[in-house]
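Quick one: sequence plus zinc ion SMILES, need structure tokens.
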Amino acid sequence: MLMKIRRLLLKGGTVVDPAAGRNRRVNVLVENGRVTGLARNLSARGAEVVDCRGRYIAPGFVDLHCHLREPGAEDAETVASGTRAALAGGFTRVCAMPNTDPPVDSEAMVRFLVGRGESAGLARVHPVGCCTRARQGRELAEIGGMVAAGAVAFSDDGNWVADARVMRSCLEYCKAFDKPVFAHCEMTGLDTGVAHEGPVSTRLGLAGKPDAGEAAAAARDILLAHLTGTRLHLCHVSCAATVELVRWAKGRGTAVTAEACPHHFTLTDEALAGYDTNFKVNPPLRGEADRRAVLAGLADGTIDAIATDHAPHTRGAKEVEFDNAPAGMVGLETAFSLGYEALVLSGLMRLPQFIARLTAAPAEVIGLPVPRIAVGAEAELVVLDLREKWTCDRDKLVSRSRNTPFAGRTLVGRVQGGILPGGRMWGVGAD
Ligand SMILES: [Zn+2]
Ligand SMILES: [Zn+2]
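Reply:
Sure thing.
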């Protein structure tokens, strides 16, 4: 899939600089994996030339939240298949959630995952370690050892850390290592439904999960983050009440960041009318007011990052009754296009701001240097065609799983390829 190119000229494109918030029409010269030239009329004899006229060049995207399913559910996804799907969607780095089987709750497991990522040699894998042993919410996991092995954050994703004493000590531990805690917010006792609790769940006869369950859990975690002074990151914010809490917390000086997923700002619970299990996700698709509040939160910066919560499941797992189906949908390959349409084409934000939600903002959450396309920097970038219209075809997904609710939908804007560290190119010009 990757082709190593020693000298490459990306000609005639527009470079998006999300850190500076602007676009520039320049040619980009990449030699031995580094950007060595960035100028309007730059040419380079003997270089491989990629015609980028009408295209945009941006830093590679960073996904703060995906499930690679390895070890334990390799029939749904592996590190190799998931990181290949990531590249297809423009993500050159992905944070892998630890709810595998066994869970990533030890130094050895983090090393295993880093090794799998390195041997796949595709998108870079940044493991997220468990907060608690076996994600059981009782004793803290080996946080220090996991940091040493390369864990960038800690989370019991899939579960909320229900015991406030355990969450407090997890935050205190993570503060000592300057690592954020990623919270999956669902208050115990309000977490048993399968759809957003409201008129639609009542009409469809589905057990409801109220927005209050997410917001109440987020409120507790925000207050504990304030108390301990630890960085807290809220996963998959899905409702208006949580957006308001994050806005309040940021105004108060709490070190909180938040992510939102494309499905939560492009779909509502009305999509459940056909009981298609590909629309079943956790947190659930909510109402129109929530969807709009998440968009507004992204537009004003209350929500920092766009993350996929890519959650592959096999066809067999999803082909059951709605109540029994596992929650989750694949998202790596559609996130950019869905976000582009909902946020940029709609006029809510400009392109560099949108790209920042996929690059600079998530990089900052996990302490990576700000991704930039600059002379002297390692080339890690994507080539985007914002005019391309394409139809999401379940059978053409790169991911090993097919559980997308967007099959058949026409999307605008597409990632055409890019360059990884070391001058390895995929997509446009490479195959
Ligand atoms: Zn979650
Ligand atoms: Zn998740």
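The pocket of zinc ion (ligand 1) is lined by residues 157-158, 184, 235-236 (CB under 6 Å). The chain has a mean pLDDT of 97.
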